[in-house]
Amino acid sequence: MTAEIWDVVIVGAGLSGLSAAHLLRKRNPEMTILVLEGKDRVGGRTLSMEIPAANGVDCWDFGGQWVGSTQTHVLDLIKELGLETYLQYNTGKKVHHMGGPNARVRIYSTSIPLLSPLVILDFAQLLWKINRLCATVCVEDPSRTPNAAELDSMTLHSYVEQHAWTAELKEELGMCSRSVFGIEPAQMSFLFFLMYAAASGGLLPLLESTPGSAQELKIKGGTQQLSEHLAERLGWKNVQLGSTVKAIWQDAEWARVMTAINTFMCRAVIVTCPPHLAAKIQYQPALPSQREFLTQNMPVGHMIKFIITYQTAFWREKGLSGEIVAGSSTDCPFCVTFDATSLSGNAALVGFIAGELATQWSSREDWAKEDYSGGCPVNVMAPGLLTYYHPSLRNPCGRIHWAGTETATQWCGYMSGAIQSGQRAALEVLAELCPTVLTQEEQEAVRRGQTVKAPFKRRQSSWLTYLPSGKTLVISTMTISTAVLLARYPNALLKVKSYFTSGLLNNHAQ
Known about the structure:
This protein is of the alpha/beta class. It is built from 18 helices and 19 strands. Strands 1, 2, 10, 11, 12, 13, 14 and 19 form an eight-stranded mixed beta sheet that branches. The N and C termini lie far apart (89 Å).
């Protein structure tokens, strides 16, 4: 059978692949583009579905859900497609329950819970250190980060064990790791953690629903429609669902992309599936050893998302926001929930079971079992990978170009990062096949391995703004001075801890 001939074949019909196709078509309408997708739908790790609700059925996102006002790539696409966003509901008090089923349940209305002064001091000095390190990270090439080898040799867990000195804060950071990455702190390179946070503007934006944060906005009608609209603009005839790519062969003239029943010849290939799935494709000639080693050693997070609908949003009636932060245990498997009430008023909560407990609960249906997802929300890097192998994540291999949210330099791991990576790969292909359609700035961006974009919008904030208003003046003054002192004189940290501990024990004895 004669193989079909295309200019570009794209592997994966998620936001990355379809964004690449969209940019290619806009720049060169004559270019022939084929998108191959193993699933029976477009959208990748986004999925919008209808489920029973109080007033019949309604639509919710079962994959990627939130966007933020600093995520320029996805916001630009939303605007271009004529879609709208609305705020994540976060009005009211929040619930904080860490330390096991018998621990105290805290109710708070600020961005951080009402922790003890000692834990707040600990949080302040650790956040100060992490933010300083984030500011030194070279997201485009993490190996250029000062002390990169040292930072990459440790896990997030080992760094926290060394620099945090209250058990409560260590537990909080474990919950943060599970809720953001779907993975335990001991499984992830600390340098990767810093790079991921730096690509999002800092640590706090990853965790919050406040302006500029990752959980700030939702898309009216669901996130999957982004991919559906892009497929419509490309033309559904150019998108083949149920077409799993088994092999990609290259020679001096063509690349051959093979599914179980068809072979497609093309001048360039863009592979956008997650790294651990891209590693399952057979390549001939074999990919460089660094690329193979990298993709075979990037574990994917494990996260189970659940949505529960209710007759009424009873938490709102009680002055609660619906946000619960919990220490995962066999008695309470989830780590966080948010209000998920639909625009039409159907009450719901959305939550996540993540990390080790998600593995224990994996007998239920989840993303780890869906074909061509294999887990969520993102692939992470174990210690040592960033320092030695990271350039292979984006470097083209002959006619093959790599995209996917894991390769992004802004909001890596998020929908916005997926779009940025697709646009970057599309510019690479255009630079090879029809460079005259690119501006000089774009050609330079291709040489740097980046997209042409406005400066990254960083949220201007201080952790002090998140403290309870009645205590802000006293605690902020005490915390700033103490944090600086402890960061500069680590031995003083042990003395302060000993002082507080002995004082608490004496008070308890009295």
